[in-house]
Amino acid sequence: MRIAIYPGSFDPLTNGHLDLIQRAAKLFDRVIVAVAKSEGKQPLFTLAERHKLVTRAIEPMPGVEADTFDGLLVEYVAKRSGHAIIRGLRAVSDFEFEFQLALMNRKLDERIETIFMMPKGSYTFLSSKIVKEVARLGGDVADFVPEHVRQALDRKLRKQPK
Ligand code: ADP
After folding, report:
1. Of 20, 122, 142, 161, whose CB is crowded by the most CB atoms within 10 A?
2. Using 50, 70 and 90 to split pLDDT, how confident is the model at 161?
3. Measuring CA to CA, how many Å separate 142 from each of 19, 100, 131, 135, 149?
4. Domains plus CATH for the chain?
5. Tell me: the pLDDT tens digits for 87-143?
6. Is residue 24 within 8 Å of 6, Cβ to Cβ?
7. How far is CA 76 from CA 68, 71, 82, in A?
8. Of the residues 87, 128, 132, 150, which is catalytic?
9. Taking a C-beta distance cutoff of 8 angstroms, is the pair 41, 11 a contact?
10. 22-40 in b/e burial notation, b at 16+ Cβ within 10 A?
11. Residues 6+ apart with CB under 8 A from 116
């Protein structure tokens, strides 16, 4: 059984993330979408909310599950008996940080490989950050996130001072 872990903040999940999950699900028997606590990033959604949004989106996907983790990724991957870490590469701007992260994770545990995947071309500009900015300013994000995420953004931002 080949298991891949796809870690991230998912604050919130976007269609770009979903595109990657679908691609990874074709390569692995099991894909665990691991929502990181990411406290330092001061996420808009709580860990429980981010986990719930992912869980709902992957419901129809066999072999895909959602989980949460805190602390060192390599320790989590070992605990879940993962063989690989999935990360996304959108543009050159992602490369430097992702390269550093992958090599650091290899240094910490050389049994675990990092696999980079490219999303569909039309999602290369998509990030949770830009979706939040557009939604905050009242823009329509329906093309970028699943409907239940759009609704969650709407509810969350209505409660927040602009
Ligand atoms: P993190 O806080 O780890 O950066 P993110 O939720 O922003 O978490 O992203 C998780 C992973 O998904 C990262 O590897 C990121 O590069 C990738 N990713 C995010 N958005 C996209 C996208 N539109 N297309 C491809 N990969 C993406």
Report:
1. 20
2. low
3. 16, 33, 10, 10, 9
4. 3-159 (3.40.50.620)
5. 999 988 889 999 999 999 999 999 999 999 999 999 999 999 999 999 999 999 999
6. yes
7. 10, 8, 9
8. 128
9. yes
10. ebbbeebebbbbbbbebee
11. 87, 88, 89, 98, 102
Kindly tell me the burial class for residue 104, based on how many C-beta atoms sit within 10 Å of its own C-beta (0-12, 13-18, 19 or more).
Answer: exposed
Q: Does the Cβ of 12 fall within 6 Å of ligand 1?
A: no
Please tell me whether residue 32 adopts helix, strand or coil conformation: strand
**Tens-digit pLDDT profile for residues 54-92:** 999 999 999 999 999 999 999 999 999 999 999 999 988
Sheet holding 84-88, edge to edge: 64-69, 30-36, 3-8, 84-88, 113-117
Measured in Å, residue 39 CA sits from the centre of ligand 1 at 17
Identify the pLDDT of residue 61: 96
Would you call 83 a catalytic residue per the annotation? no
Whether ligand 1 lies within 6 angstroms of the CB of 106 is answered as no
Helical segments of the chain, H only? 15-27, 47-58, 73-79, 92-108, 128-136, 147-159
DSSP 138: T
